[in-house]
Design goal:
271 residues, 6 strands, 6-stranded parallel beta sheet
């Protein structure tokens, strides 16, 4: 049931690819709650996805942008404020990709050029987005900026490889820029550490089905769905969370604070 939480608010949503993506689900909830936004993704990702369908549903415009390119981001931000008719109130950074993971390179045999690309796409792009927003004075006071993270920033997981370093860097950038942007404009910056979710990006990680099953059994509330994450993001965009900033917010059904659960014990004993 919509409550117009974001009525009159404007923003940019990065990373909507298809109906399984968290950014896609977020766009739907934000639209239902009265928010207006521009959709963006890398040109190559747009060719792979269905972003045009989402734009039609939400009445949004699409501006292609490579989030690692400053000129692309400058164009995106300036055109978005023009299209939306004013400064922005929210931004979602839902971007992550590792060539090493996609190509199955072992963590002991990384291609370092690819690792630089992983860090640039998945973490440095977040800094580039905020730096561009700041330089263009594109955010309203008390705006909210969110990036999606994962618990592998703090713990090791097989096959997550250099994406773990990318997520750790992402969270560090959120803290550092959160301090800066909060002081300058009262803009809040947070990351959300989401349960493993069957998106196109997530399914590219080796053994992902096992990740899902293990997290489900280790989480008292079960894995948080993409839809639930979208609702949480929307709440973080709203005025009800004005004093929350520089946090990595766990949205994982309790997984991150669970040492062992009875479901996992029962599974081990049943073998």
């Amino acid at each position: 049931m919509a409550n117009n939480l974001l009525k009159g608010k404007r923003g940019i949503i990065f990373g909507a690819l298809d109906e399984n993506s968290i950014a896609w689900k977020t766009a739907e909830v934000v639209h239902a709650e009265g928010g207006q936004f521009v959709l963006t993704n890398a040109p190559i990702a747009m060719r792979m996805g269905k972003i045009t369908e989402l734009a039609e549903t939400c009445g949004s415009e699409i501006i292609p942008a490579d989030a690692t390119s400053i000129p692309d981001l400058e164009n995106l931000v300036s055109k978005s404020t023009e299209i939306l008719g004013g400064k922005l109130d929210f931004v979602l950074h839902s971007i992550g990709m590792s060539p090493n993971v996609r190509k199955g390179r072992s963590y002991g045999d990384l291609n370092y050029e690819w690792m630089h690309k992983s860090l640039d796409i998945s973490a440095m792009s977040f800094h580039k987005v905020m730096q561009t927003l700041e330089k263009q004075d594109a955010m309203n006071e008390w705006g909210s900026i969110i990036a999606l993270s994962y618990v592998a920033a703090q713990r090791t997981y097989p096959d997550y490889s250099d994406m773990a370093q990318a997520k750790a860097m992402l969270e560090s950038i959120a803290r550092s820029y959160g301090e800066r942007y909060g002081t300058l404009k009262n803009v809040r910056v947070n990351t959300i550490s989401q349960s493993p979710t069957m998106t196109r990006a997530g399914s590219g990680v080796g053994g992902f089905d096992a990740f899902l099953e293990f997290a489900q059994k280790m989480s008292p509330l079960g894995n948080a769905s993409a839809e639930a994450c979208a609702e949480y993001i929307t709440m973080m965009f709203s005025d009800f969370t004005r004093m929350v900033t520089m946090q990595n917010l766990m949205h994982d059904g309790g997984f991150s604070n669970s040492g062992m659960t009875q479901k996992v014990i029962d599974q081990i004993l049943s073998k």
